[in-house]
Specification:
The structure is a single chain. With about 425 residues, the protein is mainly α. About 75% of the residues lie in helices and about 0% in strands. It contains eleven helices and no strands.
Amino acid sequence: MEGQDEVSAREQHFHSQVRESTICFLLFAVLYIVSYFIITRYKRKSDEQEDEDAIVNRISLFLSTFTLAVSAGAVLLLPFSIISNEILLSFPQNYYIQWLNGSLIHGLWNLASLFSNLCLFVLMPFAFFFLESEGFAGLKKGIRARILETLVMLMLLALLILGIVWVASALIDNDAASMESLYDLWEFYLPYLYSCISLMGCLLLLLCTPVGLSRMFTVMGQLLVKPTILEDLDEQIYIITLEEEALQRRLNGLSSSVEHNITELEQELDNVKTLKTKLERRKKASAWERNLVYPAVMVLLLIETSISVLLVACNILCLLVDETAMPKGTRGPGIGNASLSAFGFVGAALEIILIFYLMVSSVVGFYSLRFFGNFIPKKDDTTMTKIIGNCVSILVLSSALPVMSRTLGLHKLHLSDTSRDSETAKPSANGHQKAL
């Protein structure tokens, strides 16, 4: 009987691992396909040559797509975990959701952490150096020479980062034990380095999110059609049309030798055409779109912003007056053990909406900063170098989103006990996994 129980446990563990691997692969495949279409929408079409550079651009494109898919997975994991917790609480004995267990959620978080480290420290630096490489002087030009130069640059970069972290650790904690721990690459050094980057990502999120919250109203105002109150669109279109015709006649009357004036007139003519297109779009919009959608979206943005600020203010106040409100690491309920909100499924849905809203606001705020304004991708006119920079930036922001959400009190989900429901079905080989 004991032998049969052991075989049954092994079979159950095997089938569980196969099921989790299949689900992870399918989810990542969907994210990869979506990310590929997003990047190809913005990638410059002139980069598609049929030579050695085409192969390099294609490899960099695949690596960037992989990184963007990992970033999307890191953003979606927190809402997925929250909604999974509520589903497991609502239907604890349902046969069709047995695959949605704590072991799967914990495995997804571990994979997201692993792939984030891989993209941040290996794939994206390789894609950038591979794109900029030409091969060492004296060697035969080709893909092999460019790969060799890229690997050498990666080794030098790794040594540089290792030295910087070593010096920083010596300045902060001048202890022999901490210095020796840096020799342990997998258990200490890489997690420590990734924690530093997550800290910078959190600081960047805290800087970008307020800017994004204020810019969201402006961005949505540009995307939506505003109500026409005390405005005569026909008259404005008529005036813009006359101005466009006047500029076109002036442009046709100038000689080709006056290049400076021609450039200014062409720029002004493009601005006039853009304004005319916006006015025509406002005129063609229906009354429902003008008078209902725009006010509803603005009110919704105002409500979401107010709720976000209120929740953050309440959490900061609790942290100041109540010591028990401090995050206690891995303590607390795991997946499927307790509801995350007093309002149940409705409260969890509200948390998910706020998390997505904060992520979108942080991205908008990131591109609104003057230093990162040149990173804004343009449709069919974005170089691979800029695409790599955008992918790295989004990866840093997405990896810091769960930490910032936990710090600001937007969710109280713990993953320490996620594998508890499957301990009886799994052997102790899974005990090396750590809670995130």
